[in-house]
């Protein structure tokens, strides 16, 4: 007789019952759970806003029971949000036994099921939660309409394919810092327990809340009480650039943001005849030690990772060498906000700012922390300078001593006594100014096709930048770029692009070709037949007359369609006259760009140059849209239905590989259609897609009776090989 084969045990699966405490509750929402940087659970918006049970079915999350795997997670997960009437579930009662509390006021979780395989050590779990309007004392949220500041991260890598979950993960419910400070002052459990209306200057907090809301300056803080409440409050103030103090006249707590929110002429002026007794230099911060590079460390709540952004004063670096300083502002939740704060910190510590200790008589008591005031000090050749209060110290003899620093927002209004000026003349303003008028866009295929090594199927592209001179003294600019998490790097010197501004009493229609313009720069480098761009439409230059200010164009070239444009629109003559950093970026990547204007007086500081962003979308890999769409032989944007009328849509084929760098207008000729391209005709009702027709032809007949059930048709090209649709599409409105 044969023998039975004996089973061999190669490992074990581990099933745990685990209760965890996350922190004080209640909270607004559980967003996601990760373990070993893998997603255990991720919900759609508002999916988990109350205590509930969730079934987790991911037994292969860590590799399953295959070779090298460590199992996964499968079982019942419960979350208790920390409500005031919270009761323990039956599973928690069975786990703990005896008399079990409800754990009210605390967010707790319970899991029962598979936790791992082969290893009895479970992976550490991390929870992403939201808490903004829950947990306030007496459930009274102050100024609720401005409490939450919604931010969105569309650049971080997320592997979630469900659009609803993906969107929720990328959405950041940041809290208004003014509301955080209100809670610190009023919360009866962990705050100071002050009375909202009796102890707080609510007008000042509401003003600050409005400004912060408009600035999208939301914070994502985790207060674990390892530091005292005073330390936490100061961290909030440092993040937003503000002071909080007790108003001596009312006794109420007041909040003041440090912003450029004053008119210089309205500020009080002090001199030796009006309040100032003694002035001394404050040497607490020598100018040669002021950092010319600030690195701000911030935390991305979407990826749960720390990151860093840097701001530099290139002129100061060239003059004295690099002096770098690092600051942790971990409550900043986005790269854009961290970049703004880095510039703020760099500017606030700019070298050369005057720092003074000023002794006032009682007339100085009108000044409060962070107030701005003016001084006139002839002995220091200062006729009129804006200073900002730092600290205030009142002496026993009534004298008020204030340390103050020259305010960066008032630099332009500072007047010095020159003493021995003579002669008259016009002085040119050579101060480097930020670039205001610009366009940042992804390289179109016709420009890429000239590159011998470019593959038509590549999902990549280059950054194209065009811009106009900020003023006549602007010579050129230093171009510097970066990607998220990296430092800005200077890529070269850029020139300003020839451009024109449309002058018209009406907007430019989709068929206009004769334009009246004002040319902003000599057109010597612009040739007939070259490309220009207006808004998101590429056009061909057929003629121009600088003297009379006329321009003739061909419309809807390359991968674009004719569009309407408002008067005062810029027309950029970019063909071979654009700037780029020369780096090839993949679809989904984001490049951040700064232009440091150069004049005879120097280079614009990086902290004064706006940061612009461009997200790449595989533009060059997309098919060209069909051209010259007509309804029964007429160009229109409206289909009017009539009884027993045949309605036929017709269009022209386009083929980027045949056209290459030739600019063909929307109404010129018919090109052989690419084999892999099909046309999609989509029928919509109230914004919802109801029907799709796919065709290889360049015409489509509408079914009148059926069409009466729709209100919009969209038409575009789709490449079955690359899976991309055309950059732009036609939209036709259906009217009965």
Plain-language structure description:
Helix content is 12%, strand content 36%. Strands 12, 13, 17, 18, 19, 20 and 21 form a seven-stranded mixed sheet that branches. It folds into six domains: 11-131, no CATH class; 258-285 and 352-416; 291-348; 438-497 and 579-621, Sandwich (Immunoglobulin-like), CATH 2.60.40; 499-572; 627-735, Immunoglobulin-like (Sandwich), CATH 2.60.40. The protein is mainly beta. The termini are far apart.
Number of domains: 6
User: Helix count, per DSSP?
Assistant: 11
Low-confidence stretches: 419-427
Class inferred from helices and paired strands: mainly beta
Q: Percent range for helical residues?
A: 10-25%
**How many angstroms does the end-to-end distance come to?**
87 Å
> Outline, from the CA principal axes?
globular
Largest sheet features = 7 strands, mixed
Radius of gyration: 32 Å
Query: Beta-strand level of the residues, as a percent range?
Result: 35-45%
Q: Averaging pLDDT over every residue, what do you get?
A: 89
DSSP strand tally: 44
Write the layout of secondary structure elements.
Layout: E1 13-24, E2 29-35, E3 38-42, E4 52-58, E5 73-80, H1 90-96, E6 106-117, E7 125-130, E8 148-152, H2 163-170, E9 171-175, H3 177-186, H4 196-199, H5 202-214, H6 229-240, E10 242-246, E11 253-257, E12 269-270, E13 276-281, E14 293-300, E15 305-312, H7 314-320, E16 324-328, H8 335-348, E17 355-360, E18 372-377, E19 382-394, E20 400-406, E21 415-416, E22 438-442, H9 445-448, E23 460-461, E24 463-467, E25 476-483, E26 489-494, E27 499-502, E28 514-519, E29 531-534, E30 537-545, E31 550-554, E32 570-572, E33 585-586, E34 590-599, E35 602-603, E36 612-615, E37 627-631, E38 638-640, E39 647-652, H10 656-659, E40 677-685, E41 688-695, E42 699-702, H11 704-707, E43 712-719, E44 730-735
Parallel strand pairs: 12-18, 14-16, 38-44
Antiparallel strand pairs: 1-6, 2-3, 2-7, 4-5, 5-6, 8-9, 10-11, 13-17, 14-15, 17-20, 18-19, 19-20, 19-21, 22-24, 23-33, 25-26, 25-34, 27-28, 27-32, 28-31, 29-30, 29-32, 30-31, 34-35, 34-36, 37-39, 39-42, 40-41, 40-43, 43-44
Protein name: Putative phage tail protein
Organism: Gilliamella intestini
